[in-house]
Design brief:
alpha+beta, FAD/NAD(P)-binding domain, Flavocytochrome C3, Chain A, domain 1, eight-stranded mixed β-sheet, four-stranded antiparallel β-sheet, 18 strands, 29% helix, elongated, binds flavin-adenine dinucleotide
Length: 497
Amino acid sequence: MNEKLGHGSATDFLKYVEEVKTDSVNQVKEYDVIVVGAGTVGIPCAIKLHEEGKKVCIVQKENTPSCCGNFSAGIRLNNTKKSELAKVTHALIEENDYKPKAEVINIWRDYSEEALEWILQKSKEAGVQVEDLGTNPHKAFLEANDLDIEFITPFFGPKPYDIKAGLTAILKKAEEKGLEVFYNTPAVRLITDHDKVVGVTCKTLKEGRKKWTNFMGQVVLTTGDYQNDDQMVKHYLPQMEGFERKKKNRTGDGHKMIMDVGGCMEAIGHTKMVHDMDSGPFSVMNLPYLRVKLSGERFANEEVHMEYMNNYLLKEKGEYCEIFDSRFEETSEKLGQKVSTEELENFMPEVEGNKKGVKEDLIATYRADSLEELAEKLGIQNVETFKETVHTYNKWVEHEADDAFGVSKEKLTPIKKPPFYGVHRHVKLTMACSGVNVDGKSRVLDKEDKPIESLYAAGNLAGNFYGAHDYPLSIVGLNLGRNLTNGYQIALEILNK
Ligand SMILES: Cc1cc2nc3c(=O)[nH]c(=O)nc-3n(C[C@H](O)[C@H](O)[C@H](O)COP(=O)(O)OP(=O)(O)OC[C@H]3O[C@@H](n4cnc5c(N)ncnc54)[C@H](O)[C@@H]3O)c2cc1C
């Protein structure tokens, strides 16, 4: 077994760490800290270090900052008992199949209020579109775990506005104050002196010619996940092969650079985030309405949430439809999440008018007077199978027993009264959420669990925070909240050293 890879047999993706010949390096730049990646971790990390007087720069692969998302979450420590905090850590370990390290989860738990308050302050200065949604979005998590805590939940939006727009505005202010950001400058290889990291080599392309720069200093790697490296996906998330990817340029560069200097991947099956929150309203996403594949067949117990649907739809690459009828206002209320006509029409490409809070190229909710017409609009290929599925489903509703998949009788809703409605969902690989071994200070660990000096990793590049088969959606915005916090916390770590 190759220990660097965490598990399984060796692949050759490690070869893709670029060779750098000493005599091809065109220039050398000295900093206290080099932050690699201008995303949700890198930006707060560099800004915090810069405002505290460190000589810091960001090297960024793309020609702009790049990150995404709307919801971020953290825990308000002030009014929270220590025992409740311990229960939060336990709840997250439990829902991640007992694989995370408590000390890594506790970075988020213990620093998120301070970090997110700081981000809100920066947002105010930069005119960012953000509001704190507080504890409300997390009611289900609190109830499920019998917890009494308050949340801070910065929401960057509504869509199409998102964290990228927000952090870009905040970064611009910092650049005006002298923070240096080198765009189109991907990091390719860490520079070491014995066991210590002393810098990172980056590459720029100018007039078709490669230019190499050695940035010397401590290194914070925040290069995001590896969803765009097919070999890494095949090795760590083989079931995702062929699924569409939501991002570009996330080729696991940080993972490879770290493995090249003696770090290693966490030795677990990797966690994935495979979502579609854009084709229909948020409120419909997890209602237990009938779900069918594009073949027209039913395929799962509809009480299972959207974030797990990918597991049922490996061959179908994540495509399915939710079906309901004109009585949705009444049935959705009965199911505990009332949906309005206005909300639905906002996600219908066929309904004209100003759409609010959506990505217009991704909305896919339809209305039709017949099941045949609905099937056509949704792209369901076998209309007769679909009609038969609806017929059989209505029979389970009448009998108050779902003999096929076991949905509870109070969650079965008839599909009889036109017009009929459908949402065509397409879950795609949003993020790979597992990564390299780190400790509770975000230092990269070698295979003996010893920190590699002067090297930090954070965000989706860093492991030990998740571990379940799928990213649990219990705390809305946990990922973004964790990542923003992680950048801020590394800055504090470096400042307090
Ligand atoms: C559409 C979408 C919506 C989402 N919504 C939410 C949400 O609402 N809430 C939530 O919690 N999570 C959400 N997520 C997940 C969340 O956005 C990410 O998990 C998180 O932003 C990742 O943070 P990161 O800093 O680790 O990586 P990223 O934000 O991906 O940043 C990595 C950065 O590193 C740069 N980079 C890569 N390689 C190199 C290199 N070699 N050299 C220099 N720079 C490099 C990249 O260009 C990028 O800017 C969403 C994800 C997607 C795709």
